[in-house]
Predict the 3D structure of the following.
Amino acid sequence: MKIRQGDQVMVIAGKEKGKRGRIKRVLPEKNRVVVDGLNFVKRHRRSRGQMDQGGIVEFEAPLHASNVMLVCPHCKKPVRVGYEILPDGEKVRVCRACAELLD
Protein backbone atom coordinates (compact mmCIF):
# COMPACT_ATOMS: atom_id res chain seq x y z
CA MET A 1 0.00 0.00 0.00
CA LYS A 2 1.14 3.53 -0.71
CA ILE A 3 -0.21 4.77 2.63
CA ARG A 4 1.54 3.97 5.89
CA GLN A 5 0.81 4.33 9.58
CA GLY A 6 1.41 7.91 10.77
CA ASP A 7 0.80 9.53 7.36
CA GLN A 8 -1.38 12.63 7.16
CA VAL A 9 -4.31 11.94 4.80
CA MET A 10 -7.39 13.68 3.43
CA VAL A 11 -10.68 11.85 2.86
CA ILE A 12 -11.84 12.32 -0.74
CA ALA A 13 -15.13 10.36 -0.69
CA GLY A 14 -17.89 9.41 1.73
CA LYS A 15 -19.49 11.13 4.70
CA GLU A 16 -16.15 12.45 6.01
CA LYS A 17 -15.14 14.02 2.65
CA GLY A 18 -12.73 16.95 2.98
CA LYS A 19 -11.52 16.12 6.49
CA ARG A 20 -7.89 15.43 7.38
CA GLY A 21 -6.36 13.08 9.92
CA ARG A 22 -3.45 10.76 10.72
CA ILE A 23 -3.44 7.06 9.87
CA LYS A 24 -3.86 5.11 13.09
CA ARG A 25 -3.80 1.59 11.62
CA VAL A 26 -3.38 -0.01 8.19
CA LEU A 27 -5.19 -3.22 7.20
CA PRO A 28 -3.45 -4.26 3.95
CA GLU A 29 -5.26 -7.60 3.62
CA LYS A 30 -8.61 -5.74 3.42
CA ASN A 31 -7.17 -2.64 1.67
CA ARG A 32 -8.49 -0.41 4.47
CA VAL A 33 -7.12 2.23 6.85
CA VAL A 34 -8.25 3.60 10.21
CA VAL A 35 -7.96 7.39 10.41
CA ASP A 36 -7.59 9.00 13.84
CA GLY A 37 -10.73 10.97 14.79
CA LEU A 38 -12.76 10.17 11.64
CA ASN A 39 -15.54 7.77 10.62
CA PHE A 40 -16.98 7.11 14.08
CA VAL A 41 -19.65 4.40 14.34
CA LYS A 42 -21.74 3.21 17.27
CA ARG A 43 -22.22 -0.44 18.16
CA HIS A 44 -24.31 -2.03 20.87
CA ARG A 45 -22.16 -4.25 23.07
CA ARG A 46 -23.44 -6.89 25.45
CA SER A 47 -21.92 -7.03 28.93
CA ARG A 48 -19.62 -10.00 29.55
CA GLY A 49 -19.52 -10.41 33.27
CA GLN A 50 -19.33 -7.89 36.08
CA MET A 51 -16.09 -6.22 35.02
CA ASP A 52 -16.96 -5.68 31.34
CA GLN A 53 -19.87 -3.27 31.00
CA GLY A 54 -22.22 -3.32 28.05
CA GLY A 55 -23.82 -0.37 26.31
CA ILE A 56 -23.31 1.69 23.20
CA VAL A 57 -19.64 1.80 22.18
CA GLU A 58 -18.32 4.41 19.75
CA PHE A 59 -15.14 3.71 17.76
CA GLU A 60 -13.36 4.59 14.51
CA ALA A 61 -14.30 2.27 11.65
CA PRO A 62 -11.91 1.50 8.77
CA LEU A 63 -12.16 3.45 5.51
CA HIS A 64 -11.29 1.98 2.14
CA ALA A 65 -7.79 3.04 1.08
CA SER A 66 -9.07 4.40 -2.24
CA ASN A 67 -11.14 6.99 -0.35
CA VAL A 68 -8.11 8.73 1.17
CA MET A 69 -5.21 10.65 -0.38
CA LEU A 70 -1.85 11.29 1.18
CA VAL A 71 -1.17 14.93 2.11
CA CYS A 72 2.33 15.97 1.05
CA PRO A 73 4.25 17.57 3.96
CA HIS A 74 6.02 19.92 1.52
CA CYS A 75 3.20 21.27 -0.67
CA LYS A 76 0.41 20.66 1.93
CA LYS A 77 -2.00 19.29 -0.70
CA PRO A 78 -3.53 15.85 -1.23
CA VAL A 79 -1.35 14.18 -3.85
CA ARG A 80 -0.81 10.95 -5.71
CA VAL A 81 2.16 8.86 -4.63
CA GLY A 82 4.88 7.53 -6.90
CA TYR A 83 8.04 5.54 -6.32
CA GLU A 84 11.69 6.16 -7.15
CA ILE A 85 14.74 3.99 -6.66
CA LEU A 86 17.67 5.87 -5.17
CA PRO A 87 21.27 5.27 -6.35
CA ASP A 88 21.91 3.12 -3.26
CA GLY A 89 19.04 0.81 -4.32
CA GLU A 90 16.47 2.01 -1.78
CA LYS A 91 12.86 2.38 -2.98
CA VAL A 92 11.20 5.57 -1.67
CA ARG A 93 7.81 7.25 -2.02
CA VAL A 94 7.67 10.49 -4.02
CA CYS A 95 5.05 13.25 -4.28
CA ARG A 96 3.73 13.42 -7.86
CA ALA A 97 2.96 17.16 -7.56
CA CYS A 98 6.23 18.60 -6.23
CA ALA A 99 8.60 15.60 -6.75
CA GLU A 100 9.81 15.72 -3.12
CA LEU A 101 10.61 12.57 -1.13
CA LEU A 102 7.87 11.53 1.31
CA ASP A 103 9.94 9.08 3.40
Q: What stands out?
A: The longest strand covers residues 20-27. The mean pLDDT is 93. The CA atoms of residues 1 and 30 lie 11 Å apart.
